[in-house]
Amino acid sequence: MASEDDKFFGRLRLLERQLDKLATDFFFSESFLDTPHGSFWQPPTDVYETEGSVVVRLEAPGLDVKDILIVLRANALLVRAVRHDTTPHERKTYHQLEIRSGLFERVVSLPPNICHEEAEAKYADGFLLITVPKCDEARELRDPVQLRL
Predict the structure, then answer these.
(1) Looking at the domain assignment, is residue 81 inside a domain?
(2) What CA–CA distance (Å, rounded) separates 69 from 58?
């Protein structure tokens, strides 16, 4: 039988997933991207905090660094990239097709007490690692910050 804490954290995880989807739908509508929203794919993503930072780790092998866009907003992080299909474009019959290509994006909610201007991003071994240091107090961000790889 699940404890009250287990029930609470289960509801909290569900709310977090719903808020993530809501933020994606709100910030990046079909007209904004000029592509059908249903064509996106989302790579597996871990978000965790350490004592001094918030870390976002995406599993997305096969990307070219020039095709990755990372933008920090006041309370959200956007990662958008394109994975190109590198298989030969000859006629073929697939028996299984699981490796997604094309545009993907992830929007991750961030706490208010982060240092946007000190954020770093690295892409290696198929993982995109974004580290955003925490600040002692909330800082206002007027313009989005684009991270470079």
Answers:
(1) yes
(2) 13
Residue 22 lies inside a defined structural domain of this protein: no
CATH code for position 125: 2.60.40.790
Around Cβ 91, how many Cβ atoms within 10 Å?
5
How confident is the model over 71-104, as pLDDT tens digits?
A: 998 889 999 999 988 777 788 888 888 888 889 9
Domain count of the fold of the chain:
1
- 72 and 132 Cβ atoms separated by less than 8 Å: yes
129 belongs to a structural domain = yes
Q: Which two tokens stand for residue 32?
A: 């904004």
Residue 87 lies in a domain: yes
DSSP designation for 62: T
E strand segments, the chain: 45-49, 53-59, 68-72, 76-83, 102-109, 120-124, 127-133, 145-147
Beta bridge pairs of residue 145: 72
The CB-side HSE value for 141 (13 A sphere, CA atoms) comes to: 23
Q: Say what the pLDDT of residue 37 is.
A: 43
* Domain limits for position 112: 36-147
